[in-house]
Amino acid sequence: MSDAVFWAIVDRSAARADDPDAQLEALRTELEALDAESVAGFIRAFEGQMDRAYSWELWGAGYVAYGGMSDDGFVYFRRWLISRGRADFERLLASPDDLPLLVPTDAEGLEFEEFAYVAVDLWSEKTGDQDPPFGLAADGLGTEPRGRPFQEDPAALAQRYPKTWARFGERPLG
To answer: Does pTM surpass 0.90?
Structure first.
């Protein structure tokens, strides 16, 4: 599946981003119209975007927003970011410190673990196979993120992520 088709599907589901359950249903509806191989293509494209977002710069912004972020938390954060659609995704890859500009003031979290499971579950339903020949392997666990690691020191975080620190440094979401 091309990136353009992948993002068109995600962007249409992101129109319901204010309601996670509705967004999951919108994504499922989009994917149900595809055959199993196309759903597999969506999963591979999703994995590719997860890999693109596997950077210290992005992890650091999430770390500030939550007051800390585990490996799993960073996986779920990247899933949330993808679920927001292409424009938000590309914006944060280019400038992770823009994170506060994308987060509603009433946000309780920036994770969307379930977003990744819709396509895998649907693929299993379409094929009858419970063990797909692919997985959500692009979580990056076991490898180092790209870029320069962030320091966990508050002063260093405030300097590296001034906008994110101003919004979340003293009032993290986590």
So the answer is: yes
